Give the backbone structure.
Amino acid sequence: MQKGNQLTRKIIGRFLRAISVAFWVMVLSFVMIRVAPGDPASARLGPGAEKAAIEVLRKQLHLGGNPITQFFSYVNELIHGNLGVSLQDGVKVVDIINRTLPITIYLILLSTLCALIVSIPIGTYIGWSGKGSLVYGFRGLTAIFLATPNFFIAMVGILFFSVRHNWAPVFGYDNSFPQNLHYLWLPVAVNTIILSSVISRVLFSSVSETKDEEFVETGIIRGVGRRRFFWFYILKPSLAPTVVLLSYMMGTMLGATVILETVFSLPGIGRELVGAVLTSDYPVVQGILLYFGVITVLLSFIGDLIAYLLDRRVKI
Amino acid sequence: MSEQPLVIIDELKIDVRLTRAKRLPIVDTATFDVKRGEIIGLIGESGSGKTMLCRSLVGTLHRRGAYIASGKLVFDGIDLVAAKGAQWSEIRGKQIGYVPQSALAGPNPVMLIGAQIEEAILQDKNFPKSKVKERAIELLNIVQIRRPEVVMHQYQHELSGGMKQRVMIACAIAQQPQLIVADEPTTGLDVTVQAEIMRLLLSIRAEFNTSIILVSHDLPLVNQICDDIVVMHAGTTVEKIPSKDITHAKHPYTRALYDSRIDLVEPKGKLTTINGQPPTVGSWPAGCRFSEWCNFVRDECRVPQTMPIIPLGPDHYTTCIRYTELDK
Ligand SMILES: Nc1ncnc2c1ncn2[C@@H]1O[C@H](COP(=O)(O)OP(=O)(O)OP(=O)(O)O)[C@@H](O)[C@H]1O
Ligand code: SF4
Ligand SMILES: [Mg+2]
């Protein structure tokens, strides 16, 4: 029917927007890494390398030449699914991403899941009860967590759990599933604390708004049972802003977890990106940013869609 | 069968908690009965406490920080002042149907209309699940919604004001409650829709012998369909009067309410308007709270006292101590 049409149109429109954003991310990453100071050849040869040697290497790496032609050949390669190889060690960019991205995604997914498990009960309960002392304590505590830099929380965690008690390894990683949790649990915990502070605050304020709505009172007067009431009259009408924010944050966390990856010596994609930027490794930087762009846009698209399906008041 | 009125409201006082120590009376006091199958029009200007009084009947005063301070509130033999959780779940949605004041914001925005009506139907735990859809459509037909099958699959933002109002009424009558409380069901709707909603309420009463408390600002409008009119002013029910006697009201405020409308229709009549602002909660004058606006005021009206309820007939009382002087 007409209604179905409208939804499909909205979805298609939003999807086209996602693709165009991805395109611009690609263009920007191409330009920015070249505008930034630094030269891959001198980076690879190290300080004190001879000028002549650097020139030779530059030639080998096809670094000279018209940037426009370079761009088109890059796009052409991309269309054929080729992200290129690292200028530093010749490893395929795809392989680098395949090695490092899962670690970061594990970190993000686990901490998102934990943050939801923590935030939904806390945010809803405090928002619904609206009790002055609780709200005050909640605001204060989350403000402290938000104001503290995550590396500081991470250091405290390491000092306590790794140095003092030896409950968590300080570095290293194991790629197979349950074993990796051993290395991940502390960074996940730190990330969860910060993520929960944001999410539970947003949920808290949505729930406290929902609570006073007329339709909620209608539900009470209709005598709706507890479980139904909790979902249809409290959580579902309050969830949309949280979902939108969360999906957006999950995207930005791809780059932002670099600090945690560094502190915990996790070989994630954030660290890989920083290393590539420092050595002006154009293909690696471009490849990683393109992944980030596409993932971020897709995530926020999915977030918007879920929010819309939950609550038709949301503009998609 | 039973001669007991369905609802007994007797000297009911509702306070709101402002701070830990500070209390403010909002309804002070309300007195009237609602008999079975009777339609009561509850009239009064904005802020006079009509909605608060209605909410006391469904036990949601606490959501506004208010509570029953004293007095009697009985529904079908149940003491609502002392009612506990289990009793409320027996009453809410089953014995009393409620159409909220802002019915435009009444439907749940994250549920399909059909789901809400079905939810109202299924408050009766024994209702057969297979018949729910059929019954929902039947209810939408009763409230005269066209193309109910389509509306069932819509969200509230796709409906017009009048349709939302009808949906809320459909939910309210789903269990064939003994009492419907309709808080300003016609405010904000255009005149033809107002008349249709009024007729709808009448037909519901005719079919199910439901009692209805109909809240409104518009005395002449509701006077056409109500049995009795209860007039509220500054938290007090100042007069209860059978609607057929409305032209012989024994309280100046009732007269003013009625006349200010008549003047619009018949310019010949003497202009009687209520001058100035209504008294605000917390700054009510001592004695008769209408004294500052009353043309009949004497010093005796301002003597601090609780105005007495003066019975004038089986369904008629006034709180104006000078009611005998009004027609002189
Ligand atoms: N929590 C509160 N604190 C203080 N005053 C309140 C509170 N809730 C309601 N009031 C006051 O109580 C009075 C009665 O409110 P109520 O909603 O019952 O009026 P009403 O007769 O329904 O008015 P309207 O016709 O505008 O709906 C109003 O003056 C309102 O300002
Ligand atoms: S009691 Fe006095 S002031 Fe009040 S309505 Fe009657 S005449 Fe007017
Ligand atoms: Mg009201």
